[in-house]
Amino acid sequence: MGLEALYFSGAWKVLGPLSSGVGTIFTMHHVRPERPEPFQPNALLEIDPAFLETLIEYLRYKKVDIVSLAEAKRRLREQDYMKRFVCFTLDDGYRDNLEFAWPIFKKHEVPAALFIATSFPEKAGLLWWIALERVVAADDRVEVEMNGVTRVFDCASASAKQNSYERIYWWLRGLSDEKELRRIITGLCERYGVDPLGPCKELCMGWDEIKTMAADPLITIGAHSVNHTMLKKWDEASAKYELAESGAAIDKALGKKPADFAYPVGDHTSAGARDFALAQEAGYELAVTTRPGVIFPEHREHMTALPRVSLNGNFQKIRHVDVLRSGVPFSLPHCFRRLDVA
Question: In terms of DSSP H, where are the helices of the chain?
Fold first, then answer.
């Protein structure tokens, strides 16, 4: 409703010159055709290939520069702000990126960055949010011990499953200890007969598939930690390991050390000032969050704390992208403050 109001009122056009910045970095996860299942709690993480192609064609029609992260870095460093830019990034390394997104990028000669959590191509990563989805989908009732109290969640219908998933998911996201989150998920998977590594084995690319994409000059491979951990919830030694080892694993597998990093989950609860400093210390030239926002000239002093705009699967309309690129939805709540790097 907010996006619609900003669009049809024209506020995004009026306020855009104050808030649109010099560019936008889009983040995506899954790119695949719409599925018929009624219970899809992670639908916000996937967009239809047709929408991606339409967006690219629209941006080209509007003469928006679609550039690589390397070019975005150059423009920020050299203060080259003559024309606003857009970058496309994809997190995690799902096989549908190879099957559906990459052919579109090749067809339109569009550069994109792929951020890999390096346990995923090893088929050893815990995609806990999808594992939880499968637990909720597998039974009509799910028991979870929350803060020492056993709670029973109704999962008998699609709407009940959705409600229960959201309540469990956000409780887990609120835990300060991610090790506890992972322990709870693996316990639920064992109780309800779900393979906790199943999503990783089925959905993520292996190294050979990533190499195929990496051989394309249009594609840049960046690091996304080893275990897709929310760095802010771990001690400094663990965060340093995730930053350094993921880069080393990509270097070993592909023969090129990544220059860029994407913080897993990437919101305020998952990456903070300490982690931005550690990413720079680890040698990354650029690192992206999921803190929503557009790029301003001031970000050249904070290259490891860049915001991104999510291409949300629940809002696949070009007019929504226009509003998001204007920066107005992010500037209004913050009184047009440009930086969010603390």
Answer: 2-9, 11-19, 49-61, 69-77, 95-96, 102-108, 128-138, 158-173, 178-191, 198-203, 207-214, 236-254, 273-281, 318-326, 328-331
pLDDT at residue number 334: 84
In one letter, which amino acid is 256? Answer: K
Tell me the CATH class for 2-6+17-125+204-334. alpha beta
For residues 269 and 243, what is the distance between their CA atoms, to the nearest angstrom? Answer: 17
Query: Token pair of 25, please?
Result: 């970095």
Domain residue ranges of the chain, discontinuous segments joined by +: 2-6+17-125+204-334, 128-191
What is the C-alpha separation between 14 and 158, in angstroms, rounded? 41
pTM over 0.85: yes
Phi, psi of 5 (to 5 degrees): -65, -45
* Contact between residue 224 and residue 246 where contact means Cβ atoms under 8 Å apart: yes
Spatial separation of the C-alpha atoms in residues 225 and 47, rounded to whole Å: 24
The CB-side HSE value for 161 (13 A sphere, CA atoms) comes to 18
Residue 335 — pLDDT band, cuts 50, 70, 90?
A: confident
